[in-house]
Amino acid sequence: MSGYAMVLSACFGCKQIFSYNPHLVPSLRYPQPDGPRQPICRACVERVNPRRIQNGLDPIEILPGAYEPIAEEEL
What we know:
The protein is α+β, with helices and mostly antiparallel strands. Helix content is about 15%, strand content about 25%.
């Protein structure tokens, strides 16, 4: 029998707790480029993307399944 799992943690941007697939969720490395990855919730990605585009940066991509459960075999 197999099951599903989700990771719960605080969003780097808004600090709200959210659930996600740890392999697909958008994240950034902080405080340094080689630092630990910090997950970002969908609302924060959607809020920051217009500003990124306006500043000539690529938008942060939300991969399909980024905020969905993951099969436990994939952990």
